[in-house]
Amino acid sequence: LIRGFLLSGMPCPSSCPSGLLALMAPGLALMATFSLPSQAGDRRALPVEKPPGVKGRTLILLDVNTKSPVRIISENFLSLQLDPSIIHDGWLDFLSSRRLVTLARGLAPAFLRFAGKRTDFLQFHNVKNPAKSRGGPGPDYYLKNYEDDIVRSDIALDKQKGCKIAQHPDIMLELQREKAAQMHLVLLKEQFSNTYSNLTLTARSLDKLYNFADCSGLHLIFALNALRRNPNNSWNSSNALSLLKYSASKKYNISWELGNEPNNYRTLIGRSVNGSQLGKDYIQLRSLLQLIRTYSRANLYGPNIGRPRKNVIALLEGFMKVAGSTVDAVTWQHYYLDGRVTKVTDFLKTRLLDTLSDQIRKIQKVLNTYTPGKKIWLEGVGTSSAGGMNNLSDSYAAGFLWLNTLGLLASQGIDVVVRHSFLDHGHNHLVDQNFNPLPDYWLSLLYKRLIGPKVLAIHVAGLQRKPRPGRVIRDKLRIYAHCTSYHNHNYVRGSITLYIINLHRSRKKIKLAGTLRDKIVHQYLLQPYGKDGLHSKLVQLNGQPLAMVDDGTLPEIKPRPLRAGRTLVIPPLTMSFYVVKNVNALACRYR
User: Cα(250)–Cα(211) distance, rounded to whole angstroms?
Assistant: First the structure.
């Protein structure tokens, strides 16, 4: 009886066993951790295959509500961040690299947020630093004249029209990596001591930043320094105005923010800025933008608060009272772990994956009070703070947190999530300093290629042993569903994409039911590649290692077709995407 109703997609009548949960709340993560009553009369259940030597195999029945989406998120939902530290360590001069532009272009459309811990120590100088030729290269030219080589590269870029792309010699990149490694120690010392040195952004540096965003198909969001203060603690906008005027003269299409984690200002400079004052500062910035024709209708986002603890919520409430209608979206930031104490097992903890839900509720509660319907963004999200840890934050294992973050935020209606960082010091980035994509990059690329902005509700039913007294069973199988991306021309409109995280140490089986029954499915199974397992920085898709073809070409993303009606077998400790073709879902036929 149970099987018949589940496979048909019909609601289970009152005669079904009370412990069978067939419908989860719309938009939430759907987990296969269900139990049946322990009475003898209720033990009849769906068959569970248990091959020799394997325990706890579960057959899960899965259907999707195809009539209407439960949430619609931004086309730029998965977006990127660059930290101003790239000025300090020199990587900003290499953003014109063809390889970096190719990698960033693969994640378009997206926002590119230029912000971070050093936002409020950034000063703009309208000095072009004109590139001057200093003669041709002689013996040991690159070793002795590194800065000259940057200048020569700038000269070559200046001669290009439109998108400016550079080819940097290998020796030049090698010297830059040595420089960045030395600066990494300085940056970490600043971060741990919470004492930051000032940074200067020249006009030429801003040109390079905008060129990278524009060539990559990304929309630049620039966070202005909020810690330039007048004696009465109001914002001193003189330096920001200089930057705005220069950007407008170049007709740069930029959106704006003011400051970064204002709740930390007291520890940074010994002076706090409360929510009411910050709101007045945002109103002042909005007035400045309206005075400049290029930015009179530019978007403004904020207040970029940190984790919503009690004092941070108070700051947000003060801000929303004053400037809630001034910003186009409300933003906050989140890091799951302290990077100094991270272990690989941390990325497998379901309790950790669930910490974000409580924060979302706190932010939503404030907004529902002051500006109902206002869009919410999660900016600067990363697996761990303090730059992360090598072979952990940049490994396959970190992807469990990242993919769950994407699924959870989309299902809760968060409009945009900004990943910290695309390229950076430390180990939280998507691309390493050899310009090679890391596991989270490939995960993000798959998400961009396969996932559309419409979020669908899932109906799921499964079996599990009764939990022991006093023990909470947390969900180790996480399933999300969206309409397939309209930008993917390999699939007709009406197709559906599932993405699944299996944190179990055994494989799980999923049977598609109802509207998904007997449909052809394309599998995109992402697993670690090589002997390092979960620590690996290399990944394979359906058994084939992923790597760039050349500096200008990403690899072809090939699915593994599964025959219609086949049970999905999810390997242990993996992440996977499944496109269910030709569902003709009403929710997915139109934009």
Answer: 11
Number of folded domains that form the chain: 1
Task: Give pLDDT tens digits for 503-538.
Answer: 999 999 999 999 999 999 999 999 999 999 999 999
pLDDT score of 110 more than 90 = yes
HEC secondary structure over 21-68? CCCCCCCCCEECCCCCCCCHHHCCCCCCCCCCCCCCCCEEEEEECCCC
Residue 235's nearest CA partner among 293, 276, 291 is: 276
Q: Which domain holds residue 278?
A: 62-127+170-588
**Of the candidates 341, 253, 321, 265, which has an alpha carbon nearest to the alpha carbon of residue 292?**
253
pLDDT tens sequence across 383-397: 766 566 777 889 999
Are the CB atoms for 232 and 126 separated by under 8 Å? no
Mean pLDDT of 425-453: 93
Q: Which of 104, 108, 98 is nearest to 165 (CA)?
A: 98
DSSP label of 354: T
Q: Is residue 138 part of a domain?
A: no
In one-letter notation, the amino acid at residue 467 is P
User: Would the pLDDT of 144 be above 50?
Assistant: no
